[in-house]
Amino acid sequence: MTVEPFRNEPIETFQTEEARRAMREALRRVREEFGRHYPLYIGGEWVDTKERMVSLNPSAPSEVVGTTAKAGKAEAEAALEAAWKAFKTWKDWPQEDRSRLLLKAAALMRRRKRELEATLVYEVGKNWVEASADVAEAIDFIEYYARAALRYRYPAVEVVPYPGEDNESFYVPLGAGVVIAPWNFPVAIFTGMIMGPVAVGNTVIAKPAEDAVVVGAKVFEIFHEAGFPPGVVNFLPGVGEEVGAYLVEHPRTRFINFTGSLEVGLKIYEAAGRLAPGQTWFKRAYVETGGKDAIIVDETADFDLAAEGVVVSAYGFQGQKCSAASRLILTQGAYEPVLERVLKRAERLSMGPAEENPDLGPVVSAEQERKVLSYIEIGKNEGQLVLGGKRLEGEGYFIAPTVFTEVPPKARIAQEEIFGPVLSVIRVKDFAEALEVANDTPYGLTGGVYSRKREHLEWARREFHVGNLYFNRKITGALVGVQPFGGFKLSGTNAKTGALDYLRLFLEMKAVAERF
Q1: Is 322 a catalytic residue?
Q2: What strand order describes the sheet that includes 284-288?
Q3: Helices (H), 36-127
Q4: How far apart are the C-alpha atoms of 405 and 391, rounded to whole Å?
């Protein structure tokens, strides 16, 4: 099999009129589809149910983007049956054949790029560039895993020769597993969590987030067109506490791949550790559960560069990224100049309906709006509100970019994941205290340091305890194959997506010896 070397898919920044025209046309076409209904996808067939999942436009919640069928226990059973049936043959496909199928899916997704971006704009409130980055990352995952899977071809494992025997070790896939995906990257993370296990011979039942079922259905249209055999991938939108929990606890579920909140991740990890009646394996559970990410800026840093990186990291997609900067830790010499610059940049951010391509659109739902606003009220008693702190007028779920200063390191707004456009600024005396504060949360996903002092950068390289650490740049936007993504501590099980190691998680090694 001969393929070009992996290259990251370009992210469209819409600087040309041609690109803007194409996006406006895609938005028009997707809007014309508002209200369309999408079935489940089980065993290669589109399956409808009486109950519905309804997806709203967070910029204008009176608008229904679309509906999907709603899965229950009966559909979960059917999907598991289909997935295990498909596994019997999918596991034995030559790896080259599986990889070719993934490459076909990537090509189809690339052709529908603008449509998927426009759907993200309407369904979860991403501006155009954030939507483009989401779809580009999904294509990257498929392209990267298609190539990485070839590294696990038989025999793959080198063993030491032994006299008089033929010895070999090789990898085999696990079986049928469950993917439970988040709403904040409903193309990229959803696609990557599915295609990783599938690339190396597993089959998957995928439950999209309730707030992003329409774009999930469109991803499955691509998988269907690509020609995945019936049952290899199955689409099961439904309520997490119902169909998601049922699949997690099911004795026939071999592995669980989850991205979402710490609260739900802990429940899944606990449930996966219990042996269900009839279960004959230890379930593998991989969970990615968010962060409370900090950027440290010291007195030697380029203050303009730091302020720009902080604002992009804190407010990109309304702060609804597990990698978003929610804490800004400033040494004494950096505090006033950096804070002044951050406030000036944040004040200039535009807000509005996502289809108008503002800097900030809406948060994803009424539930998310309530959560963020409740934390803002908490913050008013813990720090000094110096910017934002309010819901904007209008139908959509718009919350102004918010900054709290003089926040104690142990304050709730400095310890708990808010997942919104809220930045807590913490003053420290020196870099040693900055590192101590940065590490003093239950999370360890991303972090950043702005400094010109090599000693500080190397100190942070060793002691800043996060899975993804960035120096003198923003802390969001990890690239597949370039910055394997996954956190420490309660940020998850460090299942590094976009890396060769990720595929190993969905394989087990078998050793065979024959004496002649």
Answers
A1: yes
A2: 45-47, 40-42, 233-235, 203-207, 176-180, 255-259, 284-288
A3: 73-90, 95-111, 113-124
A4: 19
Q: How many CB atoms lie within 10 A of CB 513?
A: 11
The CA-atom distances, in angstroms, between 159 and each of 1, 24, 143, 165 are: 25, 57, 30, 12
CA neighbor of 338 nearest in space, from 420, 403, 390, 408: 403
Is 406 tagged catalytic?
Answer: no
Residue at 364: amino acid letter? V
Active-site annotation holder among 115, 288, 299, 382:
288
Q: What is the band of 307 on the pLDDT scale with cuts at 50, 70, 90? A: very high
Cα torsion through 114, 358, 30, 145, rounded to 10: 40
User: Across residues 137-145, what is the average pLDDT?
Assistant: 98
394 pLDDT exceeds 90?
Answer: no
Residue 264: both structure tokens together: 């739900």
Closest-CA residue to 11 (of 352, 351, 316):
316
Q: Which residues of 253-271 are buried (b: 16+ CB within 10 A; e: fewer)?
A: bbbbbbbbbbebbebbbeb
Structure tokens at 356: 């108008």
Burial of 473 (0-12, 13-18, 19+ CB in 10 A): middle
C-alpha 366/C-alpha 379 separation (Å) is 20
Count how many Cα atoms sit within 13 Å of the Cα of residue 39 in the half-sphere of its side chain.
11
Residue 25: per-residue pLDDT: 98
Tell me the torsion sign for CA atoms 195, 229, 205, 45.
positive
Q: Cα(451)–Cα(313) distance, rounded to whole angstroms?
A: 17
Q: Of the residues 322, 355, 369, 382, which is catalytic?
A: 322
Is residue 216's pLDDT more than 90?
yes
- Mean pLDDT (whole number) for 68-94: 98
Peptide bond into 5 cis (omega under 30): no
Model-wide pTM > 0.90: yes
Which residues lie below 8 Å from residue 425, measured CB to CB, with a gap of 6+? Answer: 327, 328, 330, 339, 342, 383, 403, 404, 405, 406, 407
Rounded (5°) CA angle 162-163-167: 40
Cα(303)–Cα(294) distance, integer angstroms: 16
The rounded distance, in Å, linking the Cα atoms of 218 and 206 is 13
Calpha distance 54→279 (Å, rounded): 35
- pLDDT of residue 165 exceeding 90, the answer is yes
Residues 101-113: pLDDT tens digits? 999 999 999 999 9
Q: Which pLDDT value is given to residue 137? A: 98
Q: Cα dist. 434→425, 438, 471 in Å?
A: 12, 6, 15
For helices 188-199 and 213-226, angle between their N-to-C axes, nearest 10 degrees: 40
The DSSP letter of residue 356 is G
Encoding tokens for residue 365? 């739902």
* Radius of gyration for the chain, computed over Cα atoms and rounded to the nearest angstrom: 23
Q: Return the pLDDT at 24.
A: 98
What average pLDDT does range 209-219 have in this prediction? 98
